[in-house]
């Protein structure tokens, strides 16, 4: 090995402006597909940047998540356990817990939520039209849409939503909040869901929280009270920030460019292949920073990764691998096949993937149909982007129509 | 779980049209593996009844996996 290949780089790499891809991923993919990186907490780890290797790390049961839960683990966040209860388990524990909620998030069940989601999107656009342009697409459309969908699904009362969003924002930040603030928000959210669960016990409901309480109390005891609270909290957090950011990111990109050779005719609406392509193209960040630990020796890129060693496998790098995606830096609305890893791979494959797909499809379709003249209300330089958060996206996206 | 009677045999099928290649099944249960074109397939068509197989079918995000009783054809999961 050359000395060049032993260089240890700080990870995550500096995030380029707006939605640009980290250029180092492409370089490393060519020159050093397995490289060494240094994390903000816990020291050094491996980094893979090729599609195949990323898929191996995420999909091979010899790599686990449970072993990342100790103080010495290389990680982004101060708290090693701050990445969600499902994300911290390996099979068979993971399977037991995941199966308590998996049925609610299948494609078939999610389709049942489509009409309600269309109604929510329609009402938000009614309100925007009533007030008139300009409007901030993030606060008047993207966020309320995704928060309403996940809260309705869980059974969170509408009046509590603003409060919940503040707590969950704090949890998703990497540098914008102090560890103490993050701990306080974790507690607050857990207390809140424990209270809601107690109410369900006295007064059963047919929302997801009600169903989980019933499972928790059933003879088979598929999950315990602590898991129930953590799981619902995670669903709230995972369920809104990513989707809201993606709605804003997709709209931003669609407004940026003369986009392609196919004109979506009014009846066809938003093609699903375009949604998939946006998911592939946007380096959202989510799913990129949750490491895996080898539980036994594994060969990766012709080298041996030893048990206990940590590997980062960023899905955003996989999605731009030219070996798999021709001309990855170009949006191709009809790309097929499009085996992107925007929702991850393996047992932790995004639980909400079908829900997020449906929400994006509905949201972009509604914008396209209702506000065909949509355009930015400010210059490129005036759009403010989130910093210090794990998920990239505009903080505000002022638009006219 | 009390489990199935020891003799139960299950028939496994993956609908390749539905499968989105998430690998959720293969990661959770050794009775499934991923093909070169990124879809799941059962390692064997008929297997001994085993809880992990049912779990994998219940975790599939698109309900592409069906598990039936190999003798009676009765649905087991999802
Ligand atoms: C939220 C969704 C979308 C919004 C807000 C949007 C917005 C716009 C805007 C503002 C224009 C420029 C106005 C014009 O030239 O008529 C435009 C043009 C165009 N859009 Fe979209 N668009 C969306 C989705 C799509 C999708 C999904 C496709 C293709 C699959 C598409 C294809 C086109 C094409 C072909 C043009 C004509 C301009 C050109 O040829 O470059 N749009 N769109
Ligand atoms: C566009 C929106 C979304 C994107 C891009 C996204 C992406 C991801 C990715 C990449 C992972 C895997 C992380 C890893 O393996 O390291 C993941 C896991 C997860 N996502 Fe999503 N997600 C989105 C929306 C949602 C929604 C709406 C929900 C809620 C219902 C959700 C709930 C979860 C959960 C619970 C996990 C952990 C699953 C497990 O460990 O078994 N996500 N997501
Ligand atoms: S869990 Fe379902 S969608 Fe995922 S690979 Fe297995 S069969 Fe395919």
UniProtKB/TrEMBL annotation, chain A:
<dbReference type="GO" id="GO:0016705">
    <property type="term" value="F:oxidoreductase activity, acting on paired donors, with incorporation or reduction of molecular oxygen"/>
</dbReference>
<dbReference type="GO" id="GO:0005506">
    <property type="term" value="F:iron ion binding"/>
</dbReference>
<dbReference type="GO" id="GO:0004497">
    <property type="term" value="F:monooxygenase activity"/>
</dbReference>
<keyword id="KW-0349">Heme</keyword>
<dbReference type="InterPro" id="IPR017972">
    <property type="entry name" value="Cyt_P450_CS"/>
</dbReference>
<dbReference type="Pfam" id="PF00067">
    <property type="entry name" value="p450"/>
</dbReference>
<keyword id="KW-0408">Iron</keyword>
<dbReference type="InterPro" id="IPR001128">
    <property type="entry name" value="Cyt_P450"/>
</dbReference>
<dbReference type="InterPro" id="IPR036396">
    <property type="entry name" value="Cyt_P450_sf"/>
</dbReference>
<dbReference type="InterPro" id="IPR002397">
    <property type="entry name" value="Cyt_P450_B"/>
</dbReference>
<protein>
    <submittedName>
        <fullName>Cytochrome P450</fullName>
    </submittedName>
</protein>
<keyword id="KW-0560">Oxidoreductase</keyword>
<dbReference type="GO" id="GO:0020037">
    <property type="term" value="F:heme binding"/>
</dbReference>
<comment type="similarity">
    <text>Belongs to the cytochrome P450 family.</text>
</comment>
<keyword id="KW-0479">Metal-binding</keyword>
<keyword id="KW-0503">Monooxygenase</keyword>
TrEMBL record, chain B:
<dbReference type="Pfam" id="PF13459">
    <property type="entry name" value="Fer4_15"/>
</dbReference>
<protein>
    <submittedName>
        <fullName>Ferredoxin</fullName>
    </submittedName>
</protein>
